[in-house]
Amino acid sequence: ERITLQQLIAMPHVFHSPLGTSEASLDRYLKSQGFNRTISVNSQSYMSAAAIVSQSDHLLVLPSMVAELLASHWPLKSLPLPEDVPDYHLNCVWHPVHAQQPALIWLKALMKELVNPE
Asked: Is this model's pTM higher than 0.85 or not?
């Protein structure tokens, strides 16, 4: 089961934007195809976005690992995007001054392990 492009553009969206941006790679892709999506709610938190989506008819586009985690705690259904939609990349950034902090070293190691389990 996969969401269709028509469903994707027909339904309202919650846009997860921790940095306050107004556009994502999905929006650039849709524009290249002559479409737009309707973003009716902006959220800086995955948890608040999940809460909104669980109580509405809105969609939330997330990396699959985040979507699966949220769907295990909220009444949500996770579906893959249409096949032609480019991959979504999630970047983590930090100031170099903090690069050697034990908590950040631990977090980076944990993220690497989750992405590349051995």
From this structure: no
